[in-house]
Amino acid sequence: MSQSRAILVTGGAGYIGAHCCKALSEAGYIPVCFDNLSTGHRGFVKWGPLVVGDVSDTQRVADAIATHEVAAVMHFAAFSQVGESVGDPQKYYVNNLGGTLSLLKAMLERGCTKLVFSSTGAVYGDAGRDPIAEGAAGAPVNPYGTSKWMIEQVLKDYRSAYRLNSFCLRYFNACGADPSGTIGEFRDPETHLIPRAMMALQGHVGDFAIFGDDFDTPDGTAIRDYIHVVDLAAAHLLALNALLEGSPGGSFNLGTGSGYSVRQVLTVVERETGLKMPLVTKARRAGDPPILVADPSAARGNLGFVPICSDIATIVKSAWAWHQSAHPKEQRV
């Protein structure tokens, strides 16, 4: 792969964006991280230049595309807390949808017409107990999922009207950490199950809880499809390469096809760490469906995507190694 191929990565200082920057660099690309550092970590920018800016600043994005001769964009910059989106939907529509429209305007102004978009399984809402295929109706049950679904509709129109080709990658529960230990999952505040469990075991959070034990599932806790962030990064590379080879794009699920309940995940956490979780149960969070499991067969057939490190034990081991290497706050520089 040509070393001169620069890829703009919005939100590249965040959890998934940083892992994709590492994968891009290892594949011979130059990842140009574009991040306002509101939730991202400057210390996660290790594989290419950093442009500090917000995607709502159309001119700043356009200048970055031109300066670095960007060939394509990977778009991760978004707010992503389901509960917060229910309480403050305006924040999510202004940032996620409005920011994406600004990004797309900048791309068109600079003739950059290839985009890999970070979407989510939340676009399906409460889609039932079976693995969800891409043909399922978009019916999100929270503003976060709705903002992503709206962006997907925008991208369909841009593909048709402007030939701005894009992949919408609907991933389910991203988790785990890079085996090198250089980057991992940390947000402030942290809301995701596995990193919160790690932090609870280390004494860094004192209010760990299971949110809901009355779902219509075998053990009463929510079931999710967990996919390792390294596998996600690999899928983004496959989508990028397809775009650069002329693919018009499309929408694909990224998951394993298997679901684990919250209690099942915590059992694995206890087994792999040798420590006992402090288990407290609280009420469900608004906007949480009982089951979200992907049917990943389309991504396998069209992109050749096969997860290789997304078994739950590997995910937990990598997350625990990251959290043990140093308390994540020490790496947030």
Task: Report what the structure shows.
By secondary structure, this protein is of the alpha/beta class. It has two domains: 6-175 and 225-254, NAD(P)-binding Rossmann-like Domain (Rossmann fold, 3-Layer(aba) Sandwich), CATH 3.40.50; 193-224 and 257-331, UDP-galactose 4-epimerase, domain 1. It contains ten helices and 14 strands. The protein has a seven-stranded parallel sheet with strand order 3-2-1-4-5-6-11, with helices on both faces. Strands 12-9-14 form a three-stranded mixed sheet. Helix 5 (143-162) links the parallel strand 5 and strand 6. It is globular, with a radius of gyration of 19 Å.
Report a brief summary of the structure.
The chain has 333 residues and is of the alpha/beta class. Helices cover 38% and strands 17% of the residues.
How many domains? The number is 2
In CATH, the architecture of the largest domain is 3-Layer(aba) Sandwich
Mean pLDDT over the full residue set:
92
The CATH class name of the largest domain reads Alpha Beta
